[in-house]
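Severity: low
Component: inverse-folding endpoint
Summary: output formatting inconsistent between runs
Steps to reproduce: submit the following structure tokens with default settings.
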């Protein structure tokens, strides 16, 4: 996609709306840290088991396994535990030992990775923790080994290995993945548990590189080692499931209902990507109805496939990113040799942190100013850091957010439909969003103060798996409908906002219900994004009983393949004592 002076879909000039933020403002943006207090991460200290610990000691705890009480805080800090017993597994055998100890003593065991999630799939806010044991997988269960025999390439990783470390190892062997989340500092087991995805979707006529997948990361799994109950011995033990095992499909995206200690994933030939950013396309043009002329989301998808738009509230032009496989560096592009190239995404200038502080303190009328300042910082940052046209290896271009980025609450999910519906789906969503936010603003209400985001990937395709496979993940949000072969597309749409914003849960509840109703029937289906917010009431996420117990199971049962019930039955078979569960999962995924 070359640039020229015209503003057509294949050539758009560098952003000119750089605002008033100077290069010095970005390079001195550490001042933003003060305004982000409470919205950024601070590591928790550990108190070893002993006289200083404040929790009742776990009875007969296995000798030799490190144990300490630690704080737990999820991504948005809406789930915070001051103290919870946390063991550090030194090996997979330690996890087995801990599972058997927990079974004997009435404890539950929860895997702990980077805690980059919103949903209560690990621990539940307000629930007792006196019989909960977290198991840190990051310290020791982090090995990464790449194997390639010329015909098939795989990587085997411990549960606590980060996605970034895995892709770095793959890159060293000339390998990579098509899809990846924007943040690399995620444990692979945690990412697979919720079916993590990226923004890679095929351009018109594009086919997948063997070993890669346009779907979720879970669809790359070829084998995994899981802690399971062995009825013959009356104890928990390790078992490896090959992808060909009919019961493996439940574990590929398990939502925390098991404990994975290691996983093997396929990979394909690495490739070079160009990422172009544009900030001058009006949202009405970008998100236009199907078949519209101009620089539309639909047209960019046809040309490049990999398209993401970030639309800040009460602004007129979104931040559009387009990734295009490009073997040779274009003259206009800047080559990058590592990830996280958007410095301004992590260190915000004063022009942003000032209105952010106002909004965070409850001055909701500052929301339009905050939206404009966010967009201005992006537009300026792209120019001042020379990052509006990047070229490099896939990993270095796909990873663009650090774990220190601003913490937000997210609602929305995935719309599963056919490719020809992409423009319709996005147009309907953005029209609803604009009308709803404009109406609320007219009454002085601003429940949303951060962007709407849209990106695409494919559904999980069993044909992309290079080994014998029993099927795609049962509980992946991008699982295809068995009765709709033409539904090959997953459109991820989310609205994010600062935690605690007045009226936010009610807004996301209305949005979620609208999405379920609108994207339905012969047109599409809606599924939650497991790691983010869903089942909203007027007060909080994960509380709507109808959504939890009826809406979600129904969308997975639709098509008649019984995967929802089969997955729950498999979890019960291999963990009948529900050692790997919590009170939320017990409610949401009950025993048969």
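Observed output (run 2 of 3):
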């Amino acid at each position: 996609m070359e640039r020229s002076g015209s503003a057509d879909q294949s050539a758009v000039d560098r952003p000119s709306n750089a605002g008033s933020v100077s290069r010095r403002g970005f390079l001195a943006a550490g001042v933003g840290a003060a305004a982000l207090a409470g919205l950024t991460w601070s590591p928790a200290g550990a108190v070893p088991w002993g006289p200083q610990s404040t929790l009742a000691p776990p009875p007969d705890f296995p000798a030799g396994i490190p144990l300490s009480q630690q704080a737990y805080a999820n991504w948005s800090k809406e789930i915070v535990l001051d103290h919870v017993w946390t063991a550090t597994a030194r090996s997979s055998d330690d996890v087995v030992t801990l599972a058997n100890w927990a079974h004997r003593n009435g404890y539950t065991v929860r895997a702990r990775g980077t805690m980059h999630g919103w949903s209560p799939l690990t621990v539940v806010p307000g629930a007792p923790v006196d019989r909960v044991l977290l198991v840190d997988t990051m310290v020791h269960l982090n090995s990464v080994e790449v194997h390639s025999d010329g015909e098939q390439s795989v990587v085997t990783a411990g549960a606590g290995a980060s996605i970034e470390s895995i892709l770095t190892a793959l890159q060293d062997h000339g390998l990579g993945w098509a899809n990846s989340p924007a943040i690399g500092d995620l444990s692979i087991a945690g990412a697979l548990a919720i079916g993590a995805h990226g923004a890679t979707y095929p351009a018109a006529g594009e086919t997948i590189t063997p070993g890669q997948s346009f779907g979720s990361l879970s669809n790359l799994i070829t084998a995994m080692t899981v802690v399971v109950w062995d009825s013959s011995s009356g104890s928990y033990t390790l078992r490896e499931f090959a992808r060909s095992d009919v019961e493996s499909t439940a574990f590929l995206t398990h939502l925390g209902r098991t404990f994975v200690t290691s996983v093997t994933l396929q990979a394909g030939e690495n490739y070079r990507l160009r990422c172009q950013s544009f900030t001058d396309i009006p949202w009405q043009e970008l998100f236009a109805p199907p078949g519209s002329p101009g620089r539309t989301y639909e047209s960019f998808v046809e040309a490049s496939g990999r398209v993401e738009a970030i639309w800040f509230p009460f602004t007129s032009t979104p931040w559009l990113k387009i990734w295009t496989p490009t073997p040779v560096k274009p003259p206009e592009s800047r080559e990058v040799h590592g990830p996280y190239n958007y410095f301004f995404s992590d260190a915000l200038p004063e022009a942003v942190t000032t209105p952010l502080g106002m909004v965070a303190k409850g001055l909701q009328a500052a929301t339009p100013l905050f939206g404009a300042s966010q967009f201005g910082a992006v537009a300026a940052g792209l120019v001042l850091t020379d990052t509006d046209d990047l070229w490099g290896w896939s990993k270095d271009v796909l990873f663009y957010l650090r774990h220190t980025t601003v913490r937000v609450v997210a609602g929305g999910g995935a719309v599963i439909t056919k490719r020809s519906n992409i423009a319709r789906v996005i147009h309907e969503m953005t029209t609803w969003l604009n009308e709803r936010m404009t109406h609320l603003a007219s009454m002085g209400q601003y429940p949303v103060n951060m962007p709407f985001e849209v990106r695409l990937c494919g559904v999980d395709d069993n044909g992309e798996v290079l080994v014998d496979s029993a099927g795609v993940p049962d509980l992946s949000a991008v699982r295809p409908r068995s009765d709709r072969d033409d539904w090959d597309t997953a459109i991820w749409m989310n609205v994010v906002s600062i935690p605690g914003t007045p009226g936010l849960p009610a807004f996301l509840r209305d949005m979620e219900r609208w999405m379920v109703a609108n994207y339905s029937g012969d047109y599409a289906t809606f599924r939650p994004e497991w790691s983010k917010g869903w089942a909203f009431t007027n007060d909080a996420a994960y509380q709507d009983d109808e959504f939890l117990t009826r809406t979600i199971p129904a969308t997975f049962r639709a098509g008649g393949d019984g995967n929802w019930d089969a997955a729950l039955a498999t979890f019960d078979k291999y963990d009948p004592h529900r050692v790997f569960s919590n009170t939320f999962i017990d409610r949401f995924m009950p025993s048969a």
